[in-house]
Amino acid sequence: MTTSIEKKFRHFPAFSGIHDLRRKTMTEVCRFKFKDGISKVMIEEQIALAVITAECTFSQARVRLHASYAASDGKAVIDVSSDVGEHIAQVFTGLMIRKLGEENFSVERIRKRDDHE
After folding, report:
1. Average pLDDT estimate for 43-58
2. What pTM was estimated for this model as a whole?
3. Residue 6, pLDDT above cutoff 80
4. Residue 117 belongs to some domain of the structure
5. DSSP string, 8-31
6. Is 5 a domain residue?
7. Whole domain around residue 67: which residue ranges?
8. How confident is the model at residue 11 (pLDDT cuts 50, 70, 90)?
9. To 10 degrees, what angle do helices 83-100 and 40-58 make?
10. Shortest CA distance to 79 belongs to which of 56, 50, 42?
């Protein structure tokens, strides 16, 4: 079954495969938490716009190789271990500030510790 976000962005081939975080281990992420009532669909629509800007800046191929995120109702995680992910997180943060206001969500940067440290 195709979701509304997939229908809306089906002509952007890189978008369809970048969201599955199980494919790679993330070493640094930005974790977003939203106040009640923010749906996964709305979060993914804004991430999709951020991904499009990354494709314009870095190329579809580079975005496909380096971008990862996960979203659910009220939460999102974006891999920021590359300059592509950093760009997506920055644009997404700006979009959400404009759409919701700074007081309606929080963002936290989390770095995974290396087991050999």
Report:
1. 97
2. 0.78
3. no
4. no
5. HTTT-TTGGGS--GGGS--SEEEE
6. no
7. 27-110
8. very low
9. 130
10. 50
CATH code of the domain containing 53: 3.30.70.600
Does 30 have pLDDT greater than 90? Answer: yes
Domains: count for the chain: 1
The one-letter amino acid at 25: T
- Rounded-to-10 torsion of CA 46, 49, 55, 60: 80
The answer to whether 33 and 75 are in contact (CB under 8 A) is yes
Is residue 106 domain-resident?
yes
Q: Could you tell me how many residues make up the chain? A: 117
pLDDT bucket at 53, cuts 50 / 70 / 90: very high
C-alpha to C-alpha distance for 40 and 44, rounded to whole angstroms: 6
